[in-house]
Amino acid sequence: MSNTLTPFVYWAQTESQVTLKVDLTDVKDLNVDIQNNLLKVTAYGQGARGWNNYSFSLNLHSPINPNESNYKVIDRQVDFMLKKKSNGWWPRLISYPQKPSWLKIDFDKWKNEDMDDNEDEKRDICYDYPDTFEKLLTEEFGYKKEEYAKAYLVIYNIFQFVGFFYVIAVMGIRFSRDGPDSMTDTYMVVGNLFKSIQLLQFLEVMHPLFGYTKNSSLISFMQIGGRIFILFCMIDAEPRIQNKPIIFYLFLIWSMVEIVRYPYYITQLLNIKVSFLTWLRYTLWIPLYPLGFLCEGIIIFRNIPYFEETKKFSIFLPNAYNFTFYLPSFLRIYLLLFFLPSLYTVMSHMLQMRSSKLRNSNIKRAYT
Questions:
Q1: How far from 201 is each of 151, 152, 159, 164, 242, CA to CA, in Å?
Q2: GO molecular function, one example (predicted)?
Q3: Element holding 21 (H helix, E strand)
Q4: Are the C-beta atoms of residues 241 and 235 closer than 8 Å to each other?
């Protein structure tokens, strides 16, 4: 006779009962022993190791009522219904914490404590009850497997934080050493690095499309695209604006926003709650965003005569596309018609996020 093996057993629970699914087909010679805290099963059937004798024994976490418990043999499995002696949610199926490898979670039948046993609506434990799903994963695998997406996002946010922190550190050290004279060559010293990390932010437009984050790709594109326009079209393309002190102030404001934003995202990914960092993330922007927009407006305004002189980025007739574009006129229209509405849109969006994130009264009382 073949050696006795152990079949895969899948379990789930409601407040009043435990269900088991034994993964055996064409079962013969089934022997079941149901006791108050013990379930023993032996049978001959086809399991993961083919045709063989299979058996298992479960020392249950809490007592059951053997008289009200039952089982049913069908072609593809053996189903058990174990009636709990006292209603309540068990933290695990068995009495000891070390779960055997053949005992699995039956996610399809699992119910959450917030769900009614008689609820007809089909629920997805993964999406409807993510906290419970993560607890079940911890029990199932013994540890929580970090997703590749989360690992990537943590690395990305750390890299961006280090980049912006380096920019603001270099600017601060040079200012403490040389005073206002250091402002004139800010772009020459940190401009290339700033362009690199700013271009990397376009990944944040792609993250929602890949399902990595829940942000709006459109809003991210508007915010990052606006910065790219200022950085590459208004600053990098016109050397005469690069040595103005306004570049120092703009880089300082942008960097201050980011060295708070990226650590906040890292703590969110790692499920670490830092109340002060949350408050800072959704409060520091209140003075910095208007100041940043003001700096951008000054740069655009001062660049208008430069682009009138150089005609850079302007398109004149005749051309193959029969199209004309005059950048100085576009910049004037933007400042007159779109600059303040853009600021209003961004500020309104951030105020809504702040209200949502700081809904916890403890945070408000502590830091407002």
A1: 17, 14, 11, 12, 22
A2: very-long-chain (3R)-3-hydroxyacyl-CoA dehydratase activity
A3: strand 17-22
A4: yes
Query: Tokens representing 132?
Result: 């419970």
pLDDT of residue 131: 56
| Contact yes or no for 245/180 (Cβ under 8 A) | yes
How far apart are alpha carbons 308 and 265 in whole angstroms? Answer: 42
Residue 136: predicted pLDDT: 57
Domain 9-105 falls in which CATH fold?
Immunoglobulin-like (2.60.40)
Boundaries of every domain in the chain: 9-105, 148-337
Q: Please, which residues have CB within 8 angstroms of residue 76's CB and are 6 or more apart in sequence?
A: 25
Q: Among residues 68, 62, 77, 71, which one has the least CA distance to residue 27? A: 77
Task: Indicate the burial class of 348 (C-beta count within 10 angstroms; 0-12, 13-18, 19 or more).
Answer: exposed
**What pLDDT sits at residue 262?**
96
Residue-level pLDDT at 216: 80
Active site residue 68: no
Series of mean pLDDT values for 10-residue runs along the chain (368 residues): 77 89 90 92 88 91 92 89 89 81 78 47 50 56 59 95 97 96 95 96 91 82 92 96 96 96 93 90 92 95 96 91 93 90 83 78 47
Catalytic annotation on 296?
yes
Q: What H or E segment, with its residue span, contains residue 127?
A: helix 125-128
Q: Whole-model pTM?
A: 0.61
Which among 71, 166, 289, 326 is annotated as catalytic? Answer: 289
Phi, psi dihedrals of residue 105, rounded to the nearest 5°: -85, 135
